[in-house]
């Protein structure tokens, strides 16, 4: 096209203050940033959403926000903004709004630990069963080698998707779920696949849904309005 695409980045401290977040957002608005990719911890995202709302940077058009949230930890933060016709896109490793119980732990850490233990336990039992059926005693080294082989040949599915590995031991054949959040409504927007499909693409997008007839309450009802003025020079 004849349009130039520019990318700008703002870095927040790990424990950002409300002032840090607000200053970054004001700078973004000054240079007309409308599409934002957010790679922040949960607390920084909470502050960012709150300040973006105060600065009228959540409503569509023109603003759009994309969040990388592998453990599906952010969905509760979005409930506060269900009265806004927003444009959020969330990329998760775990299915969005999955109901599994992480027992108070980080959902991503819990899911990864669960899958690792499941994979190791299954592989060990497989090796032990094979040795018993063959009537042989195996050494610790043999068990390690056979378990490595069993893991590389594994086709098990866990909480984080297919537990397949390549010859280097790297995870493959997993998928990321892309979910659209439009205020109180959510729908699956697509998937990013760890392996190429038969059509040679890893990104699979579904039809976008528009709510042209949707009505919502006035977003400032019951709230204190803040008026922000930018002096043109």
TrEMBL record:
InterPro entries linked:
Peripla_BP_I
The name on file for this protein is Receptor ligand binding region domain-containing protein
Lineage per the UniProt record: Eukaryota, Metazoa, Spiralia, Lophotrochozoa, Mollusca
């Amino acid at each position: 096209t004849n349009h130039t695409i520019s990318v700008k980045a703002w870095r927040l401290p790990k424990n950002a203050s409300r002032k840090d977040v607000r200053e970054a957002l004001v700078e973004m608005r000054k240079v007309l940033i409308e599409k934002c990719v957010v790679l922040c911890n949960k607390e920084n995202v909470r502050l960012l959403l709150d300040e973006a709302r105060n600065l009228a940077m959540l409503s569509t058009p023109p603003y759009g926000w994309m969040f990388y949230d592998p453990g599906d930890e952010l969905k509760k933060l979005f409930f506060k903004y269900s009265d806004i016709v927003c444009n959020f896109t969330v990329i998760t490793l775990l299915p969005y709004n999955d109901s599994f119980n992480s027992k108070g732990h980080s959902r991503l850490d819990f899911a990864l630990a669960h899958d690792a233990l499941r994979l190791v336990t299954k592989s060990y039992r497989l090796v032990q069963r094979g040795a018993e059926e063959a009537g042989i005693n195996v050494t610790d080294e043999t068990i390690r080698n056979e378990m490595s082989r069993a893991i590389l040949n594994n086709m098990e599915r866990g909480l984080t998707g297919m537990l397949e590995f390549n010859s280097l031991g790297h995870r493959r054949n997993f998928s990321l779920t892309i979910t659209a959040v439009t205020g109180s409504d959510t729908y699956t927007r697509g998937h990013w696949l760890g392996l190429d499909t038969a059509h040679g693409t890893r990104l699979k997008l579904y039809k976008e849904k528009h709510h042209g007839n949707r009505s919502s309450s006035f977003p400032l009802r019951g709230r204190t309005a803040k008026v922000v003025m930018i002096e043109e020079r």
